[in-house]
Amino acid sequence: MDKVRIGTCWLDGCSGCHMSLLDMDERIVDVLEKADIVFGPLVDAQEWPEGTDVAVIEGAVSSQDDLSLARLARERSGIVVALGDCAVTGNVPAMRNGIPTRKLLERVYVEGASEQPGIPTDGVPPLLSRAEPLHASIEVDVHVPGCPPKPEAILFVLGELLEGRTPDVGSRLRFG
Known about the structure:
The protein has 6 helices and 7 strands; from the N terminus they run E-H-H-E-E-E-H-E-H-H-E-E-H. It has helices at 16-22, 27-34, 64-76, 85-89, 101-111, 151-162, and strands spanning 4-10, 35-39, 52-58, 61-63, 77-83, 127-132, 142-144. The strands form 2 sheets. A 5-stranded parallel beta sheet has the order 2-1-3-5-7, with helices on both faces. A two-stranded antiparallel ribbon has the order 4-6. It starts with a strand and ends in a 14-residue tail after the last helix.
């Protein structure tokens, strides 16, 4: 039997969900017996690969780069998992939504700068007007709440997906 191909990424967030994924400790070996990680921060792939079975995406969609990566992951993956409260609701990144983007950037990079004030553009992806949950940009198949989700929750979801089942997260997981 071929192994399930899993890709992971984080968009606008703190990477805490990936830390929680790693906090599965030795139980990650059980996952890796049935799956290969084909894209992610610990993998050397430079572009989301075709034929990915499961995309596990952490973080809100806040920049043009976030949007492009989310769309590419959706296009090239069979199942998309929104991992954590930022991906599920927008959470902390969405706190900026009440402030116009230009005003926010000027406050941080011009008014708040002690040296070389100016909004950076070189190598910095343009911000979208709002930070939004993943499902506002692409179709999401499974929502895994938590800030971050507990390793047991991630293990449950991955275990169900590896067995070909859709995880029933409603009875097992909660926000926060």
